[in-house]
Please model this.
Amino acid sequence: MVATGSSTRRVRTSRVDVTHEQFERRLAAHGHTPSEIHRLWDELGEPEAWADEEARALGLGSLIAVYLGLLLVVVASVSLLAIYWGELGAWGILALGVLFLAGSLAASELLRRRRLPQPADVLEAVAVGWVGLVTYAIERLAGVWPTGASEIDHVHIGLTTIAAVGLAIALVLMVLRPDPLLVVPIALAVGVLAVDAAELVFGNDLSGRQRVIFMVPLGLAWIAIGLWLDVSRRRAYATWAYWAGLITAGGAVLILVPKTVPGFTAIGVLGAVALFFSAFVRHWSFTVVGTIGVLIATSGAMTLIGGTAPLVMAFVGIALVVVGLRWSRWRERIRAAVLARLPARVRSFVVRLAG
Model:
């Protein structure tokens, strides 16, 4: 690492040669987090590239406005379909689906050429949804999708086909124009196909609860993929893989766990585990999901424990305040204590997660 410095009174340039380990150790001693250290190292190592990246990135306010505008456009398109669904027919739905698909891809390409990757990524992910609509219209024209609601098997085949086509298109787009947000439609399609795989293995008479149970390992698999992407320094993709895994597994657990005091206690424990795990993954999705789990467990149990509920709620509230105020310092201590007890290979993996 070579650093240069200058003064406004007189020009003075200095060069400091340090290794990444020395740089990280020095800044960590002054309270900087590994993510801050990593960002600063990249900035000092490639100042021109960093400045160029910042110039292309939208500010938070602008980004929120763009995302909100895109959301309204998508909602308006879906509303148009919903209002005129019965009058459009299969050919009308196909025409609108193709129009929306082409428009999304064209707008995405235009924004990408204008060096605005964030909204371009959103439109590219939305395009996969329009692919599903086009597939549905083609199925209706081909007679695959039934006109009556009683033919459940045909509906099932139609949904599987839509998921398979959407997954294939999302993977093609991922290869042609890598976009982290494409992980979202991929996760949805994989979820549908995973239920079909469960039926192939265990039979078609699976209950709703059995299907939900099958979603727990799928969610854990997405979290494992996120960890691999994180270590591989593809953290934008890891973010969405984490969310896909946490929402899939967390939602399944909320459905499966009985709504009793022991059940809500289990939810709270799992939320605390997610908070604990965030000390090593250092990704805010685990912190958010863990906190939500604790809050759901607390609020749910409050309705079951009677007159002591206000006291328990006050205690949990104070505990959350204390944890929130002290978590950063506690997290580092917890992480250091656990790392010291891990095998060398596992410790290296965990360190690379936050490197």
Summary: Residues 309-341 form the longest helix (33 residues).
